[in-house]
Amino acid sequence: TPILVWFRRDLRLSDHAALTAACESGRPVIPVFIHDSLSQGLKAAPKWRLGLGLGHLAETLRDKSSRLILRRESDAQAALDKLIEQTGAGAVFWSRLYDPDSVARDSRIKDTLKQKGVEARSFGGHLMFEPWTVETQQGDFYKVYTPFWNNVKGRDVDAPRSTPGTIPAPDSWPDSDALEDWNMGAAMDRGTDVVRPFVRLGESAAQSRLGSFMAHIVEGYDESRDIPGADGTSNLSENLSLGEISPYQCWHAGLRAREEGKAGAETFLKELVWREFAYHLMHHTPRILTDNWREDWDAFPWQDDARAGDVWAWKRGRTGIRFVDAAMRELYVTGRMHNRGRMIVASYLTKHLLTHWRIGLDWFEDCLIDWDPASNAMGWQWSAGSGPDATPYFRVFNPETQIDRFDKDRSYVSRWIAEGRANPHEDALKFFDAMPRHWGLSPDDDYPEPIVSASDGRHRALQAYENRDF
Ligand code: FAD
């Protein structure tokens, strides 16, 4: 009987434990994707990017004389039941996910399938270190990154699996929806034709980026990773987020680079472990996704009106603070933002503008093509000061001196800000092509005065912190 391989955030054929196991069984394999309530509930950019990823995966499967069967059904269980009935499948294999909604769905489905006599198997692959396998000497989970890193850094990490040579096809294929009918870009109010060229789509593109990163960039990564105007990081987060590349593939490439003596390789490995740490935290304290991780922060006087004028200025890159505005526009146009930018805009929103981190988290979730529930939540709570191992609240980034340190030649701010420039950079103009017309901005506008200056904001933030009643 056939095996259904249920794809979710693992859009690749290489190093795919569930697919490999299914192929090795010698039974026919039917790859499926179910557009259920969870994927339907994704926000604009992650949903659009998922749609692109699915289209690409379907092509890759066709090259292997296989197919991707698409079904839209809010209840994934119902979709699987129908597929099982239509194909006579005797097993469903998938790669494990870790956010609480997926965990609840998957464990329900596993139980139901088992009751029906259908084999249900989940495999690892999205993470290298299962969150429940890393514990302190007291048997607790980690709340601080460095000891977490020390615990895992020496572990054996499986070598990546290669792509199955053949994917055994069933005698007949079940029906599939047409991907276009799902209209996964419907919620993108920005011009997708502007964003599309910035997408690195699919597993072979991700692999070749990993190769060129290791050949040319990782050596200088210790410094270049902090310079938003440079091509100095791997840029693989969007592919990791959808599983177009596996963390094992990145890890082993990093280990090889370290053995070759490439200077930044160790730091790259550490960054991969930040991702693992974010998942570790989400697994053990799922409330990190929605609530202050440190409950004493519930008393902080956040401004939490998502429609407030200063929040609106922040979203549109019109705060009058160049580093902040450049980064917000990079986000809007490319669907990504450099890590230094993420830290600066998050600090500005939560400290200078005293705005609840949840508002920033939501906007990132709407805009990021590399959106990842665990890393986004950890990043925001870290920046706001409410999270585990967070930056202390009184460490307020000064967005002016950050420019002097990390954008010395101003290449980043001039790439993204058009106002006030005689010959704006072509990417700076793309922001105006991408934004919805009702935003009413023009490259000919004057560049605004700061809505809250670097020094006033710092002062306000520190005062709010001192007056807090926790
Ligand atoms: P590289 O520097 O090449 O690092 C390699 C990989 O390590 C990344 O692809 C990523 O998977 C992982 N990594 C690196 N830094 C971090 C980190 N601080 N936390 C977790 N993993 C990390 N990352 C996301 O993937 N999705 C998000 O939604 C996201 N939201 C964030 C929100 C805020 C407020 C902050 C401060 C950070 C956020 N990050 C998020 C983490 C980080 O900014 C990005 O992972 C990084 O910029 C991706 O670029 P890169 O692939 O070139 O990273």
TrEMBL record:
Cofactor (UniProt): (6R)-5,10-methylene-5,6,7,8-tetrahydrofolate; FAD
Site residues, Electron transfer via tryptophanyl radical: 302, 357, 380
Listed InterPro entries: Crypto/Photolyase_FAD-like_sf, Crypto/Photolyase_N_sf, Cryptochr/Photolyase_FAD-bd, Cryptochrome/DNA_photolyase_1, DNA_photolyase_N, Rossmann-like_a/b/a_fold
Cofactor note: Binds 1 FAD per subunit.
Disordered: region residues: 156-176
Domain of life the protein comes from: Bacteria
Stretches assigned to the Photolyase/cryptochrome alpha/beta domain: 1-128
Recorded family membership: Belongs to the DNA photolyase family.
Keywords assigned by UniProt, alphabetized: Chromophore, FAD, Flavoprotein, Lyase
GO biological process: response to light stimulus
Family matches, as Gene3D superfamilies: 1.25.40.80, DNA Cyclobutane Dipyrimidine Photolyase, subunit A, domain 3, HUPs
Keyword Lipid metabolism in record: no
UniProt-recorded name of the protein: Deoxyribodipyrimidine photolyase
One Gene Ontology MF term: FAD binding
Sites where the protein binds FAD: 221, 233-237, 268, 370-372
